[in-house]
Amino acid sequence: MPELRYNVITREWVIIATERAKRPDQFVRKQERNPLPPFDAKCPFCPGNEAMTPPATYVVPDTNSWRVRVTPNKFAALSYEGERKRIVQGIRRTVSGVGIHEVMVETPVHNMTTALLGDAQVEIIIQTYLNRFKFASSDPRIDQVTIFKNHGEAAGTSIEHPHSQMIATPVITSQLRERLSHALEHFDEFGECIFCRVREQELKDQTRIVLETEHFVAFVQFATLTPFSMLIMPRRHMACFAEIKDSEAADLARILRRVLAKLYRGLADPDYNYVVRTAPTEYSGVKHYHWYVSIIPRLTRMAGFELGSGMFINVSLPEENASFLRGIAVE
Amino acid sequence: MPELRYNVITREWVIIATERAKRPDQFVRKQERNPLPPFDAKCPFCPGNEAMTPPATYVVPDTNSWRVRVTPNKFAALSYEGERKRIVQGIRRTVSGVGIHEVMVETPVHNMTTALLGDAQVEIIIQTYLNRFKFASSDPRIDQVTIFKNHGEAAGTSIEHPHSQMIATPVITSQLRERLSHALEHFDEFGECIFCRVREQELKDQTRIVLETEHFVAFVQFATLTPFSMLIMPRRHMACFAEIKDSEAADLARILRRVLAKLYRGLADPDYNYVVRTAPTEYSGVKHYHWYVSIIPRLTRMAGFELGSGMFINVSLPEENASFLRGIAVE
Facing residues of A39 across strands? Predict the structure, then answer.
């Protein structure tokens, strides 16, 4: 018998389709990736090709080159120049499309991938996220900052050279507004952070834990929407990503790299997105919200039912996902 | 300069990425579809192969055969047998996976597509939706009924023979619950149905109208999330799909078939989903909600930003989408 599970954080129901569920090994990538060279003369993110992108806004230097390089997105979805203006006319509401859209090149090596990087390099990437997050958040035109990564075609990337992106928008999305408000309702009713509660429950159950480090816990949620999706949640209560300490950032690099390495080895380098889900900096210190990293392997497609109802059918078992990933050895 | 637009129905912001926007002809399907035979001996939905599916639950007969045939989904996401049971334990909420998951085969002809069917056949399909919707809604275990179609691989279909599906769930989704509640807030504040207001504004603006019939209006929303997505909305105020009259069902068939034919001819048979978005039958007659059909061509992918923020980047202009489709002649 299938089971419907309720996600207490997002308030979404998911159908855990036990009768249709695939075994973990059925999600292993079958199509081989095109072999890539370590340097591609046509790649705008390769060292030496810096003139192919707008001038850098942030660089972590290396002897003769750089380790991480941030530039405005050449095909930015939002314009950095301009004023934030809101027009309200009848039922129409528009805001001028100002904002910040940056590309963060994660390594000079074209054919590298996060799973294979060293911890020190991933720590530099996390510190870069933090720098750009704080920079964007300090712009008075910005209400919300989203840091994310698209890995592979199914995850929406067009350039293979490893990179993340940041889009800072002049409005807050209803998705975030609603999650903040639901978390506040939970806090008012139960006097606790719902995210901390979920993490503690997962630690108690143990069946969906993938990896634990000093400051973080990686787990498959009880009501996870899609196969092998995971959260990496800080143990310390923090509403906003900008509240992270240096020792925590280093630990986040360690757990993120290891979790991605488990996916890389266990499922043969699947396409995935990850995203830093956080309250805006103005919420730093609030008791009801909690930031985390959400990792979403793109192993299935949204069809009409998911689009039309908002409910997902998960064709895998969260407990099996976690147990499979726990079993994948990584350094 | 890009523009952010607010969807007053869903409360979602969308970035209309003017600088990245593609022309309508850039969305034309490039990959040719595999040519299909009118009959496939291995297809479970072809006439003569009825034994390959569970026994029919509804059939519209034809001389020696059938015109439309409904059966339980052989790989149902929910189990028809069983009791609805909710378990609340700490922060866990689960409901037993009972529900109704049916496949509605839309034509005996394997290589047909809705855009090329006659109006009479599409009317039979709409009447079939209505029959199954009412059947599922009358089951006391069911809270929400979603009727949808997946056309093409990018839309999540695995069987090419034209068919729609119905999934009736033992819970209501937060997506629908929130839309009902937002619509109620609008009604209480402004004394009007927000959907009727949107439709009337579109009729006044005219720039995003695709097609009008006696009882329906098809339009691209002002703040539409993805290229060429459209609504087909009844002119008469109705909260629930089950309130439709026979003359309206016939007219819905006409407009749906023509809108799909415009996509078929204008964009070379793109993959798409459509879904009947409706209040549950228990809401029939309420003044604040309004059912409609949502058509979503699958021309772009959701990437990390969309997943992580809930905000979409539309790389086309809604007004250009509509004007392009208005220009495509169909019978």
Answer: none
pLDDT in tens, B224-283: 999 999 999 999 999 999 999 999 999 999 999 999 999 999 999 999 999 999 999 999
| B327 close contact with A: CB closer than 8 A | no
Residues 125-164 on A with a CB inside 8 Å of B are 144, 146, 148-150, 154-157
Which amino acid makes up residue B224? T
Residue B149 lies in a domain: yes
| Contact status of B226 with chain A (Cβ, < 8 Å) | no
Which structural domain range is residue B282 located in?
A: 14-21+37-326
**Residue B173 pLDDT > 90:** yes
Query: CB A275 to CB B79 under 8 A?
Result: no
Residue A34: the pLDDT is 87
pLDDT of residue B281: 97
Q: Which residues pair with A79 in a beta bridge?
A: A98
- Is B204's Cβ below 8 Å from some Cβ in A? no
| ipTM over the 0.90 cut-off | yes
Question: Could you give the number of structural domains in chain B?
Answer: 1
**pTM beyond 0.80:** yes
The 10s digit of each residue's pLDDT in A50-60 is: 999 999 999 99
Q: Does residue A224 form part of some domain?
A: yes
Which residue from A255, A259, A203, A197 is spatially nearest to A228, judged by alpha carbons? A259
**Does residue A176 belong to any structural domain of this protein?**
yes
What is the interface size between A and B, counted as CB pairs within 8 Å? Answer: 227
CB B57 within 8 A of CB B50: no
B178 contacts A274? CB cut-off 8 A: no
Does B165 sit within 8 Å of A309, measured CB to CB?
no
A88-97 pLDDT per residue, tens: 999 999 999 9
- Residue in B310, B207, B292 with CA at minimum distance from that of residue B255: B292
Q: Does any CB of chain B come closer than 8 Å to the CB of residue A191?
A: no
In this predicted structure, the answer to whether residue A31 has a pLDDT above a threshold of 90 is no
Whole-angstrom distance, CA of residue A208 vs CA of residue A317:
10
Residues of B in contact with A307 (CB under 8 A): 148, 273, 275, 294, 296
Nearest to A271 by CA among A171, A100, A95, A149: A149
Q: Assess whether B151 carries a catalytic annotation.
A: no
Q: In terms of DSSP bridges, do strands B312-314 and B13-16 run parallel, antiparallel, or are they unpaired?
A: parallel
Residues of A in contact with B154 (CB under 8 A): 301
Query: What's A204's domain CATH number?
Result: 3.30.428.10
Q: Could B167 and A201 be called an inter-chain contact, meaning their C-beta atoms sit closer than 8 Å?
A: no
Does residue A40 form part of some domain? no
